[in-house]
Design brief:
The protein is α+β, with helices and mostly antiparallel strands. It has one helix spanning 38-69; strands spanning 15-17, 32-33, 88-95, 101-108, 132-137, 142-148. It is 21% helix and 22% strand. It is globular and about 50 Å long.
Length: 152
């Protein structure tokens, strides 16, 4: 992946790098906490852009299929299209059992004042594409477990 930028410029009021908590066993198992460098943040951003592009391409295919199967009930969107704009982010970087650096990223539009999102994971059920998570493996430059919330 070619770096399209040389500096990670992101408003610190919109993202936080959280130290991994062993209680987050549903996110990662058997990992060690680690840090992220400026260069790694750029790399993550580039991988995220690819993941979003690939997801949205799949959503177009799903939309076409839906509208072909149900011509009387055409949709304009699937509701699972993603964008990175206007989201807050929580990064949890770790080293996995194989010694590879992985990052879990939590994206969300809104949070509740009683949660300090700079210290605690924001966990929301439903909410659709306003809330999604993804894991990135920086060692092999890939992403996996892209999970988009459903709608109630």
């Amino acid at each position: 992946i070619k770096n399209s930028q040389t500096e990670f410029k992101f408003d610190k009021s919109n993202f936080v790098i959280l130290p991994f908590n062993k209680d987050w066993h549903s996110i990662f198992k058997n990992v060690k906490q680690t840090e992220l460098t400026q260069l790694e943040l750029i790399e993550i951003e580039n991988i995220l852009k690819i993941a979003i592009k690939e997801n949205n391409k799949r959503q177009k295919v799903n939309l076409k299929k839906q509208n072909k199967e149900y011509p009387k009930n055409k949709w304009k969107k699937t509701g699972f299209e993603l964008n990175l704009e206007g989201k807050k982010r929580q990064y949890a970087p770790v080293i996995n059992e194989k010694g590879e650096k992985e990052i879990w990223i939590n994206f969300f539009c809104d949070y509740w004042e009683e949660i300090d999102w700079k210290k605690e994971i924001v966990n929301v059920l439903d909410g659709g594409n306003c809330y999604f998570t993804i894991k990135i493996n920086l060692t092999n430059k890939s992403y996996f477990e892209l999970r988009i919330n459903g709608y109630a």
